[in-house]
Specification:
It is a single chain. By secondary structure, the chain is mainly α. It contains two helices and no strands. The protein has one domain. The longest helix is centred in the middle third of the chain and has 15 residues. The radius of gyration is 9 Å and the shape is flat.
Length: 33
């Protein structure tokens, strides 16, 4: 999945969190971690 790959590549924590939130919304789970 392109977003998950982007999440693994990024070293910026805030960017990673933003990507994770997008993935969460797209897949239906909540980003509470």
């Amino acid at each position: 999945d392109e977003l998950r790959a982007a999440h693994r590549r990024t070293r910026d924590k805030r960017e990673a969190d933003r990507i994770k939130a997008v993935v969460a919304l797209a897949t239906g789970w909540t980003a509470e971690e």
